[in-house]
Amino acid sequence: MNNLLFTALIIALLYYFCYYLPSQKKLNANPPLKHHQFTQTEALVSNNHADLPSAQFIPDPEQIKKLQKENQEKDKKLKELSEVETILDQLLKGIQDLNNEL
Q: Average pLDDT, stretch 74-79?
């Protein structure tokens, strides 16, 4: 029985060190980059930075005011909803108290 266990262990270790580990090392190796591939910065340099939005973007004051007004309305709705939530919590507590009294 000990010989069988020892043999199985030796076979498992040989498999691990001779087959499994070398195949994992091959998968982790990075392939070399080819010379004809371009990086993103090279593509932008070739376009003379014409496609960058920061060079062309000018904020519209009317749109900014509109967005600020929308944000204020949303904030007001959120405050109202939190108030409604507290009122509902109080009502639920009251209903539970009534049920406990009955």
A: 91
